[in-house]
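Checked the freezer inventory, then went back to the computational side. Two predictions to log before the end of the day. The first one is the construct we discussed on Monday; recording sequence and tokens without edits.
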Amino acid sequence: MKKKIVSSCSCLIFLISIFFASSSFASPHRIFFLFSYHQGLFWHKNAERGVKKALRGIPCVFRSYYMDTKRHPGASWLLSVSKNAIRQIYDFHPDILVGFDDNACHYVLTHFLGTKLSMVFLGMNREPEEYGFVKNNRKRPGGNVTGVLERHYFVQSVQLFSGILKKPSLRIGIVSDSSETSHTMVTSFMKIAKKKRIPITFFKFAYSFPEWQEIIRDAQNKVDLLIICNAEGLKGKGNINLSSDEIISWMVVHNNIPEVSFFNRYIKMGLAGGIVLTGYYQGLYAGKKVAKILRGRPPGQIPIDTPPEGTLAFNVNRLRELGLKIPLGVLQSAVLYGKQD
């Protein structure tokens, strides 16, 4: 009997030791999410969902910080919010810092270059070399940071609508809010347009909603296709921030030109269509890089690159309103929004 009791105790001690050893091994990783813009922004929400999907099954605890720089683009705000973000990162002691969009990369991730902190970025429009993120080359960046570049399907979307509109000399306009990300995006598009000989005849940044309205009205007789980059953080009467829902809703009523968007949310709200790179896909792709780091691979050995493909999307209500006919084969391969009867 005593032998059985001793044996049982030994087994119990052994099982307890395994439990504590495994619990120690599975202690959650600390992940800090640094968002360039405000909480609730559709891009951030979907990108965060994608990162967390890629990390499913890996024990993690998260802390988030929103820099809110789209609604507060001033230099003093940028300086203050960046310092506060850096303080919170030091306080949290993360295993990995994940930076969403350019301002997080530019003003905070650069502060931690060359440290022991592993970093992953996503949604970045500028070239990674501009921020010092590449020591060797993009396939093996060599430092403590890797990530996912945001590169929209500009040429492919223009080609798509050129075929739909069947106009030999398509006049193209570009309209966007005035955020730093938007300026970077439009600059990139203009360089590509010059190289590919795409005729951009009209492009303007809006610094307020009344200015956006004026630009859209002005474009009606000047272009055949409008590329809408971003419609975030614009202020209306009383200097109140308006949501993109309000801006796009107004535009669908007052604009008669087919619109290209690179965001499925804008197309869902009423813009005509485009080839989109979703925030979720960006996040999922970046999250896979985070998972590799957590499994022991140094960030400097993980390529900085872009997701391999986009998604074709249309709003069928808007297509009907504009009198656009899309080949059945194209529609069958697209994500469709709006009433489809």
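The second is the one RB wanted added to the comparison set:
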Amino acid sequence: MKVSVVIPTSNGRRFLPGCLEALRRAELPAGTELETVVVDNGSTDGTRELLSAFAPVRTIVFPNRLGFARANNAARRAVTGDVVCFLNNDTEVEPGWLKRPLELFALDAHVHAVGSKLLFMHRYVEVRISLEAGASAVISHRVFGGGLDDKLRFSSGVGLPFPMAGQPHHRVRDGSAVYVPIPIPELDPPAESVPALRVVSLEGSSGPVRVSVSARPPSTLTRFPGIVPLGDLPTLPAVRLVQNAGTFINARGEGGDVGSGELHTPSLYAQEEVVPALCGAALLVRRTALDAAGWFPDYYTVYYEDVDLCLRLRAAGGLLVFCPSSMVNHYHTGTNREWSPGFIENVTRSSLLFVSRFGSPRLVGETVARKLRDARTEISHVGLRNAHRLWGSAHGTRGLLKALPALGRVLGERASAQLHRTPTSELLALSRAPYLPHASQER
């Protein structure tokens, strides 16, 4: 069996050595051939010069940035494998990542795609916060004082970020955990200050707040604001976190990472399962099924194109299998920072197009109404008097407007699918179930 690995990149020079070296170290099952194609779309960081040292890696070069879908689709005529693996440039595969997926493709013709278990590439130091019952504390998102703060992860007891004094903060309760990344020197920006947890205030109690950093004895804070230095992170015991164990689709037609931020153990997400969708960061697809589905829909700029492809594969009768023994380390958001202006714009745009393609008429209407409300809130926050700032500040509104030119094509595809009796909204409703080889599976 031949496997074609397609790696799109745009100014990802810092990630490519690790990604390509990991592929070189991959343990190929007997009779397996691997070809690697890097699609360089608009890089100006020396990517081309770097790739020349990685023969026999083939490259396809474009002068401008194409976006995720078009960059992957550009390899369609170049790759020759029986299986196509779409791999993000900020990933590093484990040596045995291919073994079980290729077995699944060989043994079961119903399997159209297999997704790896993705772990965050960073190792994390666990910081636990202990409070009196009913109390809550406000902590700053600022730990490193730089770009690495984007890599902080939080347990389920931590609230969504909210602004305070121009910086994001979180409200935490007893037992909440903050997972602080151990910097990867060749990938991460330098910290601007010594890493420290900043407890800004305490609510519902007079204290104290106890902060446990890994295995060290807890530090006790009785006055606020208070700071707990985290020390030399690389010397502390570390944990791994799940980044993706398959993709969910909720009742609002929104996709997301199953298990994201959960502490990884060998028994967590350890079962092969049929799932609604798989993450495009490390996605293996049977070539015949991929060609029949039409590869990635290119009306997406970035986000949701992998979920869209997965639903098309399911509409054709295929199974999507989450394969936990196929392990891949993922830096995550190596190209687009999470919750950055570009992230908000592209998620808004792509999620509207996705729901318009697969959602029920009621869901489409609810989605449009919700996004219009969000746009009105954004516009009122910026203020019409500051019209010169509006386009640059109202990121969700901009994404909504940018979706309009592609909407006609998406609705046309939806109508065509209905004419051919291909289910649309039904594809959004699928629960995870154990994968049973050669057995009848609900699709």
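For RB: Residues 341-426 form one domain. The mean pLDDT is 90. Let me know if you want it refolded.
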